[in-house]
Amino acid sequence: MSNPAWIIDTDIHPYIDPQRVADFLPQPWRRRLHMGNVGPGSLGYWNPNGVRRSDVYAPDDSPEHGKRTDADAATMVKHHLDRYALSHGILNADHINVGLSPETDFACAFMSAVNEAIAADWLSVSPRILASIHVTPTDPQHAAAEIRRWAAHPQFVQVLMPSGSRTGYGNRVYHPIYAAAAECGLPVALHPGTEGLGVSGVPTAAGYPGNYLEWHTGLVGSYIAHVVSLISEGVFVKFPSLKFVMIEGGVSWLVPVLWRFDKNWKALRQLSPWLTHPPSHYAHEHILLTTQPIEEPDNLHQLQTLLAMMPIEKMLMFSSDSPHWDGDTPDFVGRHIPAAHRQRVLRDTAWALYRLDERTKNTNPHHAPKSIQNLKSKIQNYHVPVSNNELE
Amino acid sequence: MSLYPITNLNELPPGARKLTTIAGKPIGVFNVNGQIVAIQNLCPHELAPICVGRVDGTTLASQPSEMVWGRDGEILACPWHGWEFDLLTGQCLTDRRRLRQFEVKIIGDDVFVEVYS
Fold it and tell me: Which CATH number do you get for residue B46?
């Protein structure tokens, strides 16, 4: 049952040791991992603070002290979910880059093994931990099979692909993935960070950025390209129940892009004759964004003015991106969201999108950790300026 | 206003820090190349415990394509988002917000911090 005092975190990164993934790989890929070769790696852009936050350890006065909060499921439940009054969190593994390996056989086997490792080590520990099904978009048939393999598992709640890609994700090559997701009632999500890796295109439309600041700021470019591609190539006409979640792209870029898109559509409609509504209509109905990294203009009202220009009550879901360097806490995000929509953004939209009523109905509350019982009192002491009726 | 003993100079050599709580306030005391400073252990951005962050130098303002390293030991970077603060002034290098500073008194070898309580 949904308790409105709890928040849902739609983007958490567990630490999954490649050597643990190797345990689930058939040969010869297990031997490959044992030799240390995990695939396409990264372009090596340097974040001077480190991509993973340096301080995400369990507190010194806890039995887990010294352990990272992303080290294992139990530590994550206690020191991330409980700490921030989160009822559920969705795991997205950092290993999505492997899905862009030119070695397709290896990439498919690896992503399947990542899902196995998540099911074995994380989902089995707590029903509050949910996860994405990690797939290899360069082999849509394999991706579709992987979706169907896990779809009946109550804790695999969406399909995840890297936003680095060879073409826009509206391209018909990818449609078998969407057919499987729609059939199984699962949203498809994108996560950034793989731009320029493996077989993906160059990291930005202008080529190779000169440092991490430039690269990371420009990641939104691939999100713009994918949104325009998905809508103009008719994905949401062909799969009318499909939802797409744009994780970690920020929020404020979408409105002006849709203005431009609608204006162009008025003149160029004949190139996408399947669109019977302006493009913004499909975006509002089918695309969701996660909050992090929410933009922080000096004048907060400017952001709120912009948020009022789209239906954030159905398009926006809280995400922390824990334990990465640019993560947000729920109270910080809560202060940015107008009070009228806070409950939707922090919880209700994700609850509905991921069908958590259905997924949690067989969850025996006695299996939940004791700490969950204290969540309500925790959130009452919490700095989210929610109104009183939201705490009932 | 009260003076609270923190440590003594032998235990706080240049580059060292001591984290403590005074009158309910989490405070970090740093030896910045011989100068002792005290700040509240709270980042003004998202309220992180900033005093566990990295103390380092940074790249100084320079011309394009020129990297000039300086201010070793004077810059505190928040462990959450990497915002850099000047330990000597409390000022953030990239935002108007600043760290809350406390008055430090050295009496003999003993380090005290002045806090309203």
Answer: 2.102.10.10
What ipTM did this prediction achieve?
A: 0.75
Q: Does A325 touch chain B (CB under 8 A)?
A: yes
The tokens for B1 are: 């206003």
CA distance A79 to A58: 6
The one-character DSSP state at A248 is: T
Closest residue in chain A to residue B65, using alpha carbons only: A210
Distance CA(A341)–CA(A349), nearest Å, equals 10
Q: How many domains does chain B have?
A: 1
Task: Please give the Cα distance from A253 to A315 (Å, whole number).
Answer: 13
Q: Which CATH number fits domain A7-391: 3.30.565.10, 2.40.50.100, 1.10.760.10, 3.20.20.140?
A: 3.20.20.140
**Predicted structure pTM score:** 0.88
| B8: containing domain | 2-115
pLDDT digits (tens, 9 = 90+) for A232-276: 999 999 999 999 999 999 999 999 999 999 999 999 999 999 999
User: Does A325 contact B77 at a Cβ distance shorter than 8 Å?
Assistant: no
Our CA angle for A127, A331, B51, nearest 5°, is: 105
